[in-house]
Structures are given as C-alpha cells and as structure tokens.
Amino acid sequence: MPISAKPDRYGFFAFDGGLLHQLSDAYGLGPLTGFRPVLLDGGHVTLIDIRSQTSRKMVIEATDGSRLFLKQIPWYCEPDTLALATAWQTQATAAGLPVPRILRTTGGSAWYDIGGSSFTLTEYVPGRRYTGTPRDRAQAARTMALLHSTPAEVPTGPAEDAFAGALQHIALAPDIRPAPAAALDLMRHAVRFWAAQAAVSGWGSLAGQLTHGDTNPWNLIYTDTAAGLIDFDNAHRGPSLRDVAEAVLSFCSVRYRQDTTNFAPSVPGRIDRDQAADILTAYTQVRALAPAERACLPLAGGAVAVGLVCLGLMRGDYPHDLAHDLAMWAAGVPDDMTRLLAEVCP
C-alpha cells in the first residue's frame, strides 16, 4: 500500500500518437493503431479511469488486432521496488503461474521511461471482473499460494514491515486530510501492541519471504479455470502472510463503491466466516501455514486493517465522522481472524 502523498493529478487521457510511436520503437512492435481507455467484460464496459485512479493505464491495439496493456508505474513505487516487482513477475510467468507476461524493450529493460514517468507493457489477459462467488475467492487464494510457494531469484529489494507500514500510514493521514487524533492514537497504540506480540511469535523469521502487497479483488482477472494476479507495484520482501491477511479483509469484510477500488463510505463488517473459509481453505490446500505464520496472521491482519482505514481516510472514501468506528473495527480484526483460523484451519 502507498505510504507517500499522491502528487497532483494530471489528465488521465494524456496519451497521444507520439507516445504510440515511441512505444512501438522502444519495444519493436511495429504499427500500433491506438489506445483503448476501457475494459470490456461481457456486457459491461468500464472506463479504466473510473475503475482505478492510482496511475494511468491503457489497452493498446496493434494493426493485427492483438492487444497489450500499458501501465504507468505509481508515484510511490521506488526504483528498487520496480526492479524486484518486474523480476518476480517475470520469473512467475516463466514458472507457469497465472501472471501476465512482461514485455521487454529492444534494450532488454522490463520498463520504459518517458516524460519523467516509467511504464510497463504486458500481454493483455482476457477475463472477467470479480463476481463475489466462492469459486472466485478460491481461485484468488490458489493463485496467491502458488505465487508464495514458487521459488524466485530476485533482487534483494526493499523490505517492508506491516506494522511499521501501518504506523507510517497513521503518521501520514493527518497531513493529507484532517482526522480525529483520538482515532489515530487508538490505532497507533494497537499497532505497537501487535508488533510486540508478533516479534515474540516469530515475525522476524518470516522477513525473507516475498509479498505481492495488494491482494484485493480488483487485482485479479478471473477465468473459468484460474485467477490471474496483476499489479505488482507494492511487491517487497516481508512475510507472505500479509497477502493472506489483506485478501481475507478485502474479499470478506471491506465494502467497495460498486466495482471500483474506492471504499464505500461505511464501516466494514466483521469478517464473513464462509467467505473467509473459501480463501483460507483453498490457500492452505496449496501452501500450509507454518506455526509462526499462524501465530502472526491475525496480528498482521490488524496492521493491514489500520493501513486500509488510513488509506480510505486519506483518499476521502471514508467520511471524517466514521474515523472512531473505523479504528474500532481495525482494532477488532486480530480477534476476528484468530477465531476464523481456529474454525476453518484447526
């Protein structure tokens, strides 16, 4: 999750024919016909700008009818993160995982710099959006587990601690939008308590794992057989169970505004037991949780919940007067996840 203020937004449709020519030359693609600012999913047509406002994205069409996906790297993705993310995604594709293939420039780079921004170009993977079915959740969990269990040799890259990240979110929140100090203090105290518990439970032994960092329903493309994971911009070294915690919360508790990545202006509910069972059961069938991971998962869930609350407050998704209730929800997540683990994965 981003932990730096978003710069002033530029025009989303600021792509032109000149960029098409530069991309064609940089990647050796031949003639390109234009940009398509929409995603097609059956009878649904979604403007990419409405679906997600993190960075500019476009579908590119070639004269032969083939399609590619162009994405600007978000402002918070540092060069070392980009190197880790593209290396991991490349190796995951080579291992046969359902991850879009990254195209490389004629010079061998996994990204292209232009106009002060970096872009990645990947194969276009057809599929559908999340529909809220048990199969969708199970597919998402299996893909996560496969990603976490597949060996990869990537740059040492940045390390991220979920608890330190949550504290950074708390510190940044009032700089972006006013937020009640009492709610922020409640979450800060909780995160520090969870971090101390996690340290005793073996959190440090998991630090060398790889984490996607943004496992929400909208970062997967669903088909009849699998779910493809996209958007590796938050990839880092850290306990992989952070992805599991975020998936449980984002699929089974957080409410979204229609089918966008923006949160609905309401307090998330308790974690839905049946929905969480879809995820935890499918995940552990592929990759069993080690004892330290089982002990730390609920604590990491609390830290992820705090990060989501702060993100929603900073973006203006959550109104100011919900801050206390949101903080109370986040504070209750570890107990909720502990109960779920005992019931679903005894």
Quick structural overview:
The protein has 346 residues and is α+β, with helices and mostly antiparallel strands. The protein has helices at residues 17-27, 48-51, 79-94, 134-149, 162-176, 181-200, 241-252, 273-286, 291-315, 323-344; strands at residues 32-36, 38-41, 44-47, 57-62, 67-72, 112-114, 117-123, 210-211, 220-222, 227-229, 236-237. Strands 1-4-5-7-6 form a five-stranded antiparallel beta sheet, covered by helices on one side. A two-stranded antiparallel ribbon has the order 2-3. A two-stranded antiparallel sheet has the order 8-11.
Description:
The protein has ten helices and eleven strands. Helix 6 packs antiparallel against helix 9 and helix 6 packs parallel to helix 10. The two termini are 30 Å apart.
Fraction in helix: 40-55%
Distance between the termini: 30 Å
Order of helix and strand elements from N to C terminus: HEEEHEEHEEHHHEEEEHHHH
Spans where pLDDT lies below 50 across 5 or more residues: none
Number of strands: 11
Please report which band the strand proportion falls in: under 5%, 5-15%, 15-25%, 25-35%, 35-45% or over 45%.
Answer: 5-15%
Report the principal-axis shape.
globular
Strand order of the largest sheet: 1-4-5-7-6
Instruction: Quote the average pLDDT.
Output: 89
**Sheet having the most strands:** 5 strands, antiparallel
Radius of gyration of CA atoms, rounded to a whole number = 20 Å
Structural class: alpha+beta
Number of helices: 10
